[in-house]
Specification:
It is built from 14 helices and 13 strands. With 396 residues, the chain is of the alpha/beta class. The strands form 2 sheets. Strands 9-8-10-1-11-12-2-13 form an 8-stranded mixed beta sheet, with helices on both faces. Strands 3, 4, 5, 6 and 7 form a 5-stranded antiparallel beta sheet that branches. Helix 5 crosses helix 10 and helix 12 runs antiparallel to helix 13. It binds zinc ion. Zinc ion (ZN) binds next to helix 3.
Length: 396
């Protein structure tokens, strides 16, 4: 038996007035998701525990069958794994954003989406300046990594997108009297001196772009202690995603992380490529997880038309292509990781709809895939790891 899980990030939504009280999933033309629902069993899944933040990392851990309350330690360590940074058991990995500071306030959490090439040069300079404190690793655009070796401390950091327009000195790392927090806060503030006079930033300002004139550390954590997917569930897994966080989960879960050319995590992603690489991976893996970020991006942007378009692209160009070519005994599941309603433009903890089609098992009465239909599915309301257990069960 082969298993394929296809995740449309942030796909679920609320009924929308402009859509006649329907959700984007109800309105979008999605014959392939509907087919999975019509031929399989549906239900709802609580992917985000009440006490945790509604991050994609947390939600995807749940879908993969890892209770985030037990396994989630922060986004930093997941991103570290994704870019191949090895962490010791006492090391702390932070996400390091390149931000724009203006008049003591956090003006832009992403420095105008600085290019990867420009950012790399700034990260090199940071490494030269702060080698005594820790290690910087260049990532993509404004998203980088900072590693603190042998620092067993409980620090409180604030995500930069929650501080936009806020005073920087009010939102530095806490507790403020902790010596490590103090050292890191000094570095954050001092980075302004180093970065603002860097030629890259002088050039950006001349062009009217926001300079990447400060760093911001957050999302920190130690290395999670995860059993591999094979140890936990007895399946050999592969993961297809353009997003570092999701790929990092795959690394810790001992899955093959498959990079698809042209997979961007954005509207222009290579849907067909993802389908083809997933099918290829199924030849020598039991379980393949395919994640598409584009839909969530449209939802964060509050772009209803684009949300519907990316849902339709996901359905036709990825899922449809996979369904056309799948053969033998298999199960395929389709679901979002969480709600990202257009109206609120952020992640919401409401349980998500899912459908699982099995080539050998019976179906329920649900005939289409969306938030409302799934509630009457035979699988009922599942929580966290129960989804993976249902998927792998011989007879759901
Ligand atoms: Zn997500």
């Amino acid at each position: 038996m082969k298993y394929l899980v296809v995740v449309g990030d942030g796909m679920a939504d609320y009924p929308i007035k402009e859509l006649g009280g329907k959700t984007p999933l109800q309105v979008a033309n999605t014959p392939n998701m509907d087919e999975v629902a019509a031929r399989g069993v549906s239900g709802t899944l609580k992917t985000i525990p009440e006490e945790m933040g509604a991050g994609s990392d947390v939600a995807n851990l749940s879908i993969l069958g890892y209770d985030p309350r037990k396994y989630y330690t922060g986004r930093g360590p997941l991103e570290a794994a994704s870019i191949g940074v090895k962490m010791g058991s006492k090391d702390i990995a932070f996400r390091c954003n390149l931000i724009t500071e203006k008049d003591g306030k956090l003006a832009d959490y992403c420095a105008d989406h600085i290019s990867t090439e420009e950012a790399k040069k700034l990260i090199d300079t940071l490494n030269e300046s702060y080698s005594e404190i820790g290690e910087f690793y260049a990532g993509v655009s404004y998203r980088h990594l900072f590693l603190l070796r042998e620092a067993d401390e409980d620090l409180i950091c604030t995500p930069p997108h929650d501080v936009i327009g806020g005073t920087i000195s009010d939102h530095l790392i806490k507790p403020r009297d902790n010596p490590i927090a103090e050292k890191l806060n000094d570095m954050i503030l001092d980075s302004k001196n180093i970065l603002s006079k860097h030629p890259i930033n002088i050039e950006r300002e001349e062009k009217g772009k926001n300079p990447a004139n400060m760093i911001w550390l957050w999302g920190q954590g130690k290395r999670p202690q995860m059993e591999t997917l094979f140890q936990k569930y007895g399946v050999k897994g592969a993961i297809v995603s353009a997003v570092d966080l999701i790929k990092g989960i795959g690394v810790y879960a001992g899955m093959s992380v498959i990079n698809v050319p042209g997979a961007t995590g954005y509207y222009d992603t290579n849907y067909e490529g993802k389908a083809d690489y997933a099918l290829k991976a199924l030849e020598d893996h039991d379980y393949v997880y395919v994640h598409v970020e584009a839909i969530d991006e449209a939802a964060h942007a509050g772009d209803l038309e684009m949300k519907i378009k990316t849902i339709e692209d996901f359905d036709r160009r990825l899922l449809g292509r996979v369904l056309d070519k799948l053969e033998g005994e298999y199960k395929i599941a389709v679901l979002p990781d969480h709600f990202t309603p257009i109206k609120v433009r952020t992640h919401i903890k409401t349980p998500v709809p899912f459908s699982i089609y099995s080539s050998i098992n019976e179906k329920d009465s649900v005939t289409e895939f969306n938030e409302i239909a799934a509630k009457s599915g035979r699988a009922g309301s599942l929580v966290g790891e129960e989804f993976m257990k249902l998927l792998l069960k011989k007879r759901p």
